[in-house]
Amino acid sequence: MKLPATTVRFALAALTVLASLGAHADQLADMKARGTLVCGTLTTTEPLGFQDPQTRQIVGFDVDMCAAIAKHMGLKLEHKGLSIEQRIPELSTGRVDLVSAALGYTKERAQQVAFTAAHYQVPIRVMVKKSAGIDSFAKLADKRVSAVKSATTEIFARRGLPKTEIVTYQDGPSAYLALMQDKVDGFSTSHTAGLRYLAESKGEAVFINDSLAWEPTALGVKKDEPALLAAVNKTLEDMEKAGEIDTLWTKWYGPNTRFAFAREKKLTPISTFAQ
């Protein structure tokens, strides 16, 4: 029996709607169904995410944040190492559920991924060799400054040092090495990441006593996943109230570490910076 044309059109429309709903699955529901949280971190930035020389495992503040969030959500952590360039693409394609990888908030990035509340804020600094006598940004005019390609440290260096040539490298160690080998005159880095390199320089490098910007750092989730974003934000709020974030920060940045950097600014809604 041949069905009326209107019935056929209705059935086809219903199938289209169902297909579109299936294509936009709820990522939080998927995570709960499989029982894991896939969380991406950097792997070459101490103490955020780096390889422990003894265990060969990737450890650090960001790794511990991933583990704590997974535990709060009743999920098993599946850690994934990422480069700076991979952070946003891996989120956008859904290959990771969450990124905890020195992800500084910018309005441009907010067009691509969703940001949680900022769990810490750090100044963006420029490191120079002490022997160079460069003590201001003005003295970097017509000189060269290294930065990690696609990182906010590159963005802020280009904005704050318009008369300086910005030379990009694939990762922090390479950008730092360029400074120490006199290939560049300065190195744009976040204060937290830069503390590692100051320690490695054994007094040979210093920060210029000024900042290019004060950067809010947050966790990233895929765009248009409101349930997941809300769940991670709720977890961060619970961790903040319980003092867990401070405890992790003290473990990696506290006075008994070689970094000794205080977490002055606490959990702050990302809307504060989106004005």
From TrEMBL:
Q: Which UniProt keywords apply?
A: Signal, Transport
Q: SMART domains in the record, alphabetically? A: PBPb (SM00062)
InterPro entries to which the protein is assigned, alphabetical: Bact_solute-bind_prot3, SBP_3_CS, Solute-binding_3/MltF_N
* Highest taxon of the lineage: Bacteria
Task: Tell whether Signal is among the UniProt keywords.
Answer: yes
Q: Which residues form the Solute-binding protein family 3/N-terminal domain?
A: 36-256
Entry keyword annotation includes ATP-binding: no
- What Pfam families would the database entry show? SBP_bac_3
What does UniProt give as the signal peptide span? 1-25
Assigned protein family: Belongs to the bacterial solute-binding protein 3 family.
Can you name this protein? Polar amino acid transport system substrate-binding protein
- The protein's organism comes out as Variovorax ginsengisoli
